[in-house]
Design a protein that fits this description.
With about 375 residues, the protein is of the alpha/beta class. It contains twelve helices and 15 strands. Adenosine-5'-triphosphate (ATP) binds next to β3 and α1.
Length: about 375
């Protein structure tokens, strides 16, 4: 096995030892080959190993989410894609070209086919919306007439044709990001990089911007690389996901596969946040460690897969002849799969006997529903 194991996104998840060697699929838009990125030590500050052993491919035309905690290396990864940073080792292939080997004019030309949007929009406050969008076209040497026509087209595309003459200070966050998106698309890039582009927006505006990005992907075929620390963003928009932790890829694949069967603790914690694995306060405060006669045992059941949870409580009650109570439930849909948990109350015997609990756990295990006993309530 290659020292730098690789995992083309979209392949079924496999244990690390079964991962295939370097992604060679011709249809990759971006390919990281044995990438390491170390920021060198300077003025007494130690160097930082930001990325190590990065090998994966981003399929052409996909929306791929890169998710990780703060400091995981997400921004370092995107800056390698547009050549703002050079890898310490390895190559970054964008649209069949080694961007890490380019410099000067060649690099600037290649960068025109890679658009980028930012968390804080990075608009010039002294320029109107239209003039911000025009900037990359001016730099690329377009004629005044061509720029005027293209800017009008872009403003309409992002849904703010009426904001042509507005300055950034006169726009809402969502409108500023629409200007940012229009500017990023001005030179008709094939890749759009989004580094936390919705992190400064409220949930409703976030949804509108994500819908716009989905349209852009669908209508223009632009490959989108979506950097985020928010599971909800990946879930709403991406089909593929790469989970980064401490500079390494810890999991990657289809969103539905990864989040219905998360293997790495980091992925599990993202999922737990997204589906709110915690119990309602009113229930949590009543849970005791010891059984009480005539009370309930509290059992949490993980639900993963299409339709998995729909009939679980009814079947359990019927097949075991038990008075099962549903204490809390949270089921979400991720990539068409149900993901969540049910918290059940299983009646204890009059003397606190656990026969029903034992039978319930055996039944759940027989149908492969992961379950745990959280405690008891009176
Ligand atoms: N220019 C730099 N010089 C030195 N170290 C850097 C530089 N840029 C990033 N780092 C370090 O590299 C690591 C990865 O940083 P990076 O910005 O890629 O993380 P991130 O996943 O984008 O985090 P966040 O979610 O907070 O934006 C961090 O430890 C960071 O301190
Ligand atoms: Mg970052």
């Amino acid at each position: 096995m290659n020292a730098h194991q690789s995992l083309a996104i979209g392949q079924p998840i496999a244990p690390p030892e079964a991962i295939s060697p370097a992604a060679t699929d011709a249809d990759a838009m971006v390919r990281f080959e044995a990438i390491a990125k170390t920021y060198p030590a300077y003025r007494g500050k130690p160097g930082v190993n930001a990325l190590e052993n990065i090998d994966f491919a981003i399929p052409r035309g996909s929306i791929t989410g890169v998710i990780g905690r703060s400091g995981a290396g997400k921004s370092s990864l995107v800056r390698l894609i547009n050549g703002l940073e050079k890898p310490t080792a390895g190559r970054v292939i964008v649209d069949h070209r080694d961007i890490s080997a380019l410099a000067g004019r060649e690099l600037r030309l290649a960068q025109r086919s890679i658009g980028m949007i930012f968390q804080h929009f990075n608009l010039l406050s002294s320029r109107t919306a239209a003039d911000n969008i025009a900037l990359p076209l001016e730099i690329a040497g377009w004629t005044k007439a061509d720029i005027k026509a293209r800017v009008a087209e872009l403003l309409a595309l992002v849904g703010i044709a009426d904001k042509h003459d507005r300055y950034p200070s006169e726009l809402s966050g969502g409108q500023k990001q629409r200007v940012g998106i229009a500017r990023a698309l001005a030179t008709r890039p094939s890749v759009l990089l989004s580094d936390e582009a919705t992190s400064a927006l409220d949930p409703q505006t976030t949804r509108a911007i994500l819908d716009l990005l989905a349209n852009i992907n669908r209508e223009l075929g632009v490959t989108i690389v979506l950097i985020t620390h928010e599971m909800s963003v990946v879930r709403q928009l991406a089909k593929e996901v790469v989970v980064l932790d401490a500079g390494r890829v810890v999991e990657s694949g289809h969103v539905a596969d990864i989040f219905t069967h998360p293997k790495h603790p980091i992925t599990q914690s993202f999922l737990a946040e997204a589906i709110g694995d915690s119990l309602p306060v009113s229930l949590a405060s009543r849970i005791m460690a010891e059984p009480a006669a005539g009370g309930l045992a509290v059992i949490r059941v993980q639900v993963r897969g299409a339709g998995a949870g729909d009939t679980l409580v009814a079947r359990l009650a019927r097949e075991l002849g038990l008075d099962v109570s549903l204490l809390s439930a949270r089921i979400d849909e991720i990539g068409g799969q149900h993901v969540g948990s049910l918290t059940l109350g299983i009646p204890l015997g009059i003397s606190g006997g656990e026969d029903a609990v034992t039978r319930t756990l055996a039944w759940l295990s027989q149908y492969q529903f992961p379950a745990e006993r959280l405690g008891y309530v009176a």
